[in-house]
Amino acid sequence: MTAISTSSLRARLALAALLSLSSAFCLWKSRSLRRRRRLFSVPLENPNKAAPIQPAKIFFASQTGTSESLARRLATRLSAHGLAVELVNPLHYEPEDLPKETFVLIVASTWEEGKPPPNAAFLARWLAESAADFRVGSLILSRCQFSVFGVGSTAFGATFNSAARDLARWMKALGAEEIVPLCEGDVDGGEVEKEFHLWSEGILSLMKGEKTIGDGARIDMPDDLEEENEYDEEDEDEEAAEDSDVVDLEDIAGKAPSKKSNGQLANGTGGIKEMVTPIIRKNLEKQGYKIIGSHSGVKLCRWTKSQLRGRGGCYKHSFYGIESHRCMEATPSLACANKCVFCWRHHTNPVGKSWQWKMDDPLVIVNAAIDQHTKMIKQMKGVPGVKEEHLLEGLSPRHCALSLVGEPIMYPEINTLIDELHLRRISTFLVTNAQFPEKIQMLKPITQLYVSVDAATKESLKAVDRPLFGDFWERFVDSLKSLRDKQQRTVYRLTLVKGWNAEEVDAYANLLCLGEPDFIEIKGVTYCGSTATSKLTMENVPWHSDVKAFSETLAIKSNGQYEVACEHVHSCCVLLANVSKFKINGQWHTWIDYERFQELVASEKSFRAEDYMAATPSWAVYGAEEGGFDPKQSRYRKERRHGAAALKN
Ligand SMILES: *[C@@H]1O[C@H](CO)[C@@H](O)[C@H](O)[C@H]1NC(C)=O
Ligand SMILES: *[C@@H]1O[C@H](CO)[C@@H](O)[C@H](O)[C@H]1NC(C)=O
Question: Is residue 36 part of a domain?
Fold first, then answer.
């Protein structure tokens, strides 16, 4: 299977190169992004900040010095024309600063196995993971224009310039605009100097604002064809369908194996299938998942890395005091019972109405999850900003978010799995999709139980979640009622999608009395690009101000039972809390005393949310100047940035 797809990929690449289709596609893609940007001229991440113009950054991914000297030459040449440039060794660069860049040029060699040289390894990994991570969104680099020059050797065959190609692909996937197509230099061909010169000319004339792109840019796409592509949605679908990663697997993992599956999915002769098939595995691994056994996974969250480096935690840090660098994200079931429109995986995940797969032991899953998680933490050693003490803390996770892809509650041994986590004094946050009320009823007390409330009416729930069950609405309502009956620390999680559910505030208010959740988390959907199975566009993405307005209205409609307690501006996320439970003498208590929680669990007596709540710090409270950003983290951040600046030349 792998061999077939690799060789067909290779064949396709060769064909694409031959016909210059790839650069034509890049151009079309960058055109359509530019178009989007015209509609939404302010970038998503920081809607309130004006964009200062940065000097052009010239990165070199260099091992033997060839790329570095080419990059140096380009820097000299551009500065000679009075252009502001900065030569950057990516080893000393903070990738989290990329969203601030407006112009990036990369000269990249390809090292062993098609990878970039070590000095660019971290930058490359950051780009690869961000590009595959739904939480990052596809517009994080939308302010940035870029171009890549590859220093490759045809002697390496299929991996010729693959580091440069990857870098360009990831930059584009994150919304950056490729202003001069990737130029693949060939050191064996002896033409690299000439190729570099032409590429540099193209860059120079663009930066000087000249209209003609120059000889370096080999774009010969007729204008009318571009325009046609820009408006043709079908094309986008075809493109997606051709991509080997976008395979319709519904019929494979949920139902009978189809012809498409080549019989590889049914394991044995009529035996029990494995949930994670080779295609799904490949797909998930590409997104940074470590697959455990045949149906579980862990992934190192972007925020775990961020807090390891003292650069801020996720909204769960602001709302509940979770230490992101000690948080493990895992799921014991990568399968799901919905096919949500905003699912970032565009339905390459298995779906099913009940557990029908081979099952792994909960103890094995927990041990393997911790093992894989700590391995990923160890890989952060030596990354800029990571301190020894953070790393040590990270190596013993205190929290587990059972909230990755899939439906954790489907796993028949979920209670034993939770016990195993609590035995290790690891807190448990679990998110379920409101399709299994009986599973909610039988679930053991956990630290915080979430139900995704993706829509507020039957019609919109059907449209948004595309559930597999015919009686999905009854299941949904019963799930909410089960939440109320649990008498635990509970949360409704709302994902606002403009035009789909963000207009239903009255209907949402009506759902509050069904589940009487302690908290309501409201988050704007993240845009992850459009594919054949997800038709979201930028118009569907709410701003932080939209999320705030929705939250405030919902609070009013609850007749004062809920108030807006916290916000995390960076993730576009707001928290409502039950006032009479969590506001004591005017002070919010949305945080959790995790030690107390573990004591309560160990006591085996029944307990309630009020028994282990803790005071919310002032910086996390709604309307605080810090916007939910821990000042301890920001102080550290400032120190770091001075250090980083000094290292750049
Ligand atoms: C089938 O299951 C067995 C036992 O779990 C496993 O070792 C084997 O790799 C599986 N085969 C396929 C084709 O998935
Ligand atoms: C809020 O908490 C109070 C006190 O526990 C409880 O009586 C009330 O029902 C809760 N409100 C909602 C809407 O859940």
Answer: no
